[in-house]
């Protein structure tokens, strides 16, 4: 299983726009083949930061999503709202306690 975390800092006046995009796409992302879980998080110390936490069957499943029209259109709209470059990283789950 692959864990994917994406940290995004938004222009404060664009947060509502981001939430509208996320609300339109979250069910489609969650239903994408190979996606097992999706969460939206907020940084408690920086109200302009949102993070997605998702679980994927494999790196190949994540890459298939990243090559999809769903990702391309969602990301194109989202990246216009950033105040800073997003940070993304993946990790393979070794143990679930």
Automatic annotation (TrEMBL):
Keywords: Monooxygenase, Oxidoreductase
Membrane-spanning parts: none
InterPro entries membership: ABM_dom, Dimeric_a/b-barrel
Domain of life per record: Bacteria
Coiled-coil parts of chain: none
Domain ABM: 2-93
GO MF assignments: monooxygenase activity
Protein name: Quinol monooxygenase YgiN
Species: Spirosoma oryzae
């Amino acid at each position: 299983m692959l864990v994917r975390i994406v940290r995004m800092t938004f222009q404060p006046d664009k947060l509502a726009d981001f939430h509208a995009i996320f609300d339109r796409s979250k069910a489609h992302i969650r239903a994408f083949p190979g996606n097992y879980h999706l969460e939206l998080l907020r940084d408690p110390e920086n109200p302009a930061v949102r993070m997605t936490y998702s679980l994927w069957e494999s790196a190949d499943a994540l890459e298939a999503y990243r090559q999809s029209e769903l990702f391309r259109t969602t990301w194109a709209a989202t990246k216009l709202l950033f105040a800073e470059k997003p940070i993304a990283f993946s990790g393979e789950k070794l143990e679930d306690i």
